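The authors assume throughout that readers already know how a fold can be written as discrete tokens. What matters is that the chain and its backbone geometry are given together, residue for residue. A single example would do more here than another paragraph of explanation. For illustration, here is how one protein appears when written out as sequence plus structure tokens.
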Amino acid sequence: LGQQQELDGQLLVAMATYREGLKRFPESLELNRSGGRLLVGLKQFDAAVPLLTKTLTRVANDREMAYYLAVAERALGRNRRAEVSWESAQQYGTYAAASLFNLAAIAWKAGNRDEALDRISRAVQAAPDAVRAGGIEVALLRAAGQAEKARARLAAWRLMDPANSLLRVEAVRLGAADASVWAHLAADPERVVEVVADYMRFGLYADAVDLLGR
């Protein structure tokens, strides 16, 4: 019933259904999984952690729940716990690429550039059509001083998504002429916010400030 309510867009109703179910069947693996996952989606991170932790105690190799637990732990400022959970989630499966993306961000912000570049490369290998990760790959290569490699990867990604805002900004940073990109970004503040958010996630604060300043 809760899953059907989620599919119908009734997320708060679904959460109430899961909570009622957990009162009656507190050890139900599926109710703990569904409740924990939905609580993360609703940004109720404190409430999500116990359910997700309980699930992983029962099924230690549940990569999906490890990913959601990492998201909750990071939101609560517990970065080391988040990193451990993402390490588990990245081993294989649907959440591998997203986990590697987040692990790359942790590594870059910690100053481990080679590790970050390796993780973002593995993320795009796991999800070859993940243009967002591709844009970050270009940005990190540029920031690491590998301009030629950054241009090569940029060219490959722009064949896939030539209108992508991050890729267009990175092209300008790498020397391309594209005066219209600023009008494109100015037309919708969300376009700026999306690029800036990714820059900030990876600690590329100077790039974020420069873009916001425009």
Notes: The CA atoms of residues 37 and 135 lie 28 Å apart. DSSP finds 14 helices and no strands in the chain.
